[in-house]
């Protein structure tokens, strides 16, 4: 079977996006690399290293399909026999650019094009070589060229990139990648174990934690424009960065250190107070956070999609001191993390 995380992504793409209207991919994960000045890369060695790395990690050549009889989303590893019948399980694309505008357009396409991958065929990874001005005739990538590794999020998360780069580097340097497929835990095994886990305790915890909370009710926040009820979801988003300044940053670090609390918990408590003020005294909040989902050491060497989102509910008591609130937030989050393996779709 597919994992719970894969099922969420698959359903989101199949159901929440209208195929009749233009789509923007939100599950493409491109990673862009450029060589350090003076260095070169052998395309022949890179292709061989990619083959070894993809062959080691079965999640990079696995398909997703819905089994109507079982009423279950299933995953299947694409084998060498399948490759003889079809094309390779990953593609290497070569293009050129001369201007920054052209390069930016290529990067935008890698990030937003919804047609780059085919989950039903197991095409979940691609390598894009972007040469400066012209494709190399001697199969060498220079420091003026760009290398893009792009993955579909259903089979890949951010911690997976460290594993991918480590194995790719070893395969490129040595020309081989040793592993024992009979003893190593695979992502497929993780999905089976996940399905067989007892969820009773976690289910009771989340039922109690979210009792009487209306998850479908939006928080009353100030906004800069009205959103129509039937407005099509584009998937577009943005991010805003700002600098707290040296003095405030120092005070923030001092507060965390002197009270023996992590920066994460302190930031979360600060965010809850910010929402309290922004909503003119609302004191029952529920926000979502992502957890890495690798709750066993054996999972740290597997490429795959392990991320789970969990709701963090916090009831603020206006009479608490900020230190007491921070401790409350810390205890609450520690308890929630214990049951973070419980799939979000069962909570909702």
TrEMBL record:
Gene Ontology molecular functions: catalytic activity
Pfam families listed in its UniProt record: Condensation
Domain Condensation: 1-347
Signal peptide location: none
Identification of the protein by name: Condensation domain-containing protein
